[in-house]
Amino acid sequence: MTVSMYEIAVPSFTKHLEALDAILDKAAAHCEAKKIEPEVLLTARLYPDMYTFTKQVQSACDFAKLSIGRLADLKPPVHNDTEKTFAELKTRIAETLAVLAEAKAEPMEAAADREVSIKAGPRELKFSGREYLLHFALPNFYFHCAT
Question: So where are the chain's domains?
């Protein structure tokens, strides 16, 4: 049985972003119940040199929308990373889910063997579409979602 790039990416990104959205609801409720300022959680880091919780959510959304944009020939929305509240992060997730909902299987399959080139710091990385999805986009998405 063959599994398509669409089947690998879109349902997985969607499932995990929906879970992340639910986590934001729980975090907001926890802050309210315990009288914690939301900024305490939104700016928290697991380790001093890691991204804040807010930046982790932003990065997870970016990996989902940008990879699907590249592979499905879509133009995802540009976000300026200005979210400062749970509600604003939930809006970003919703906008990312909207990009995923636009994706179609055919262009993603056509991208499997096409070269994908991205900038990562000063370097330019080149992959086939399949390699990009499996060995760069998905692992980074999962990392930021979990962190």
Answer: 5-146
